[in-house]
Structures are given as structure tokens and as C-alpha cells.
Write a structure and sequence with these properties.
Helix content is about 20%, strand content about 25%. It is built from one helix and three strands; from the N terminus they run βαββ. The protein has a three-stranded antiparallel beta sheet, with helices on one face.
């Protein structure tokens, strides 16, 4: 038989997984960053998946720039 305890605070849940390589979480509307060696389509996929999991209201624009691409947050 187990004793049931009441009013015991649950510990905070720790988020598992690796930290994002890109600074999506720190970005505000109008901010951008450059990624060397990536195509816009690759970064669009990364940005979409991050947004879907962490911040559905966040929207990004990705454009080719030199030997990489630039990612802007616009929402």
C-alpha cells in the first residue's frame, strides 16, 4: 500500500535536447543573422521547424547573400 501525499510541489521540468545552433529565440522583429555555406531553402526548413516547436507566431524571411544566406525575423 502507498501513502498519498498532498500539496507537494512538483519540481520544474527540464527541457531536453540540444541547444539551437541559430539565435532564433533571441531575435526580435527586424533582427537578422548571416549563415555562411547554407542555401536559403535549407535555412527556411530550419526556421520553420524552430518556429513550429517554439514560437508559432514567429515568421522569418531568408535571402541568398554572398556565399550563404541572411535570416530576418519579421513577425
Amino acid at each position: 500500500m502507498f501513502k498519498i501525499d498532498k500539496n507537494i510541489d512538483m519540481p520544474a521540468l527540464e527541457r531536453r535536447g540540444r541547444k539551437s545552433l541559430y539565435p532564433f529565440a533571441e531575435m526580435e522583429k527586424g533582427d537578422s543573422f548571416f549563415v555562411e555555406g547554407k542555401l536559403p531553402g535549407q535555412m527556411a526548413s530550419v526556421a520553420y521547424n524552430w518556429s513550429k516547436r517554439h514560437s508559432p507566431e514567429a515568421k522569418f524571411v531568408i535571402k541568398k547573400e554572398g556565399l550563404g544566406c541572411r535570416v530576418w525575423r519579421f513577425e
